[in-house]
């Protein structure tokens, strides 16, 4: 059995919900700081599911580190919101637009990877929310993945992801790890969280579409 985690390391869905609430400013700009914090919370959840998911969490952690480097770097004021980041990086030609080159760690391409994963999360959580007691998390996860992220992944990543999904715990254990309370309370909280996640996704999607950034290499 795994050693118990330190309390501050424990995942809580409420915490993630709260960070996603903070993501959007009054005029619908997305704060990079809170976006990153939301992902950190989700990765805690992933880590608590076991080492099979290590290769996924490692990639997500790397992406977060890149964004934090921008957030804390000398141009930190340009990285306050996704909108200001896009403007700054495009105006200063800091993004590889057609093929990978001098800017493999641009904020724009890095955030795009997380943004695509956010769509997977939205689809997965919606399935989880509406599933019955004996719903299979592995199937919900695979379906959500096939409808979103998978098209951006090469065969070998799709294969590894598919294998990891198979060992996901069942719905009751999954709900337990969320640390919310009864299954009914989890479902209610998912109902609160989904519109927030969905709005952050939509705002980012529109911004990236406007600037033709949805296929950054
Ligand atoms: C709960 C089960 C979690 C399953 C996670 C589903 C997503 C599967 C993603 C598989 C990614 C495999 C790792 C490699 C990825 C990279 O190739 C690829 C491309 O990057 P590159 O252009 O720099 O090369 N990276 C990505 O697409 C970014 C993936 C980020 C995935 C983050 C997933 C976090 C999952 C958090 C789970 C939270 C569940 C919450 C329940 C309340």
From TrEMBL:
InterPro entries: GLTP_sf, Glycolipid_transfer_prot_dom
Keywords from the UniProt entry: Cell membrane, Cytoplasm, Endosome, Golgi apparatus, Lipid transport, Lipid-binding, Membrane, Nucleus, Transport
Keyword Membrane: yes
Subcellular localization: Cell membrane; Cytoplasm, Cytosol; Endosome membrane; Golgi apparatus, trans-Golgi network membrane
Reactions the enzyme catalyzes: N-(9Z-octadecenoyl)-sphing-4-enine-1-phosphate(in) = N-(9Z-octadecenoyl)-sphing-4-enine-1-phosphate(out); N-(hexadecanoyl)-sphing-4-enine-1-phosphate(in) = N-(hexadecanoyl)-sphing-4-enine-1-phosphate(out)
Membrane-protein topology: Peripheral membrane protein
Principal location class: membrane
A biological process from GO: negative regulation of interleukin-1 beta production
Glycolipid transfer protein domain sequence ranges: 31-179
Family matches, as Pfam families: GLTP (PF08718)
GO MF: ceramide 1-phosphate binding; ceramide 1-phosphate transfer activity
Gene Ontology cellular-component terms listed: cytosol; endosome membrane; Golgi apparatus; nuclear outer membrane; plasma membrane
Record family assignment: Belongs to the GLTP family.
Entry protein name: Ceramide-1-phosphate transfer protein
Species per Swiss-Prot/TrEMBL record: Collichthys lucidus
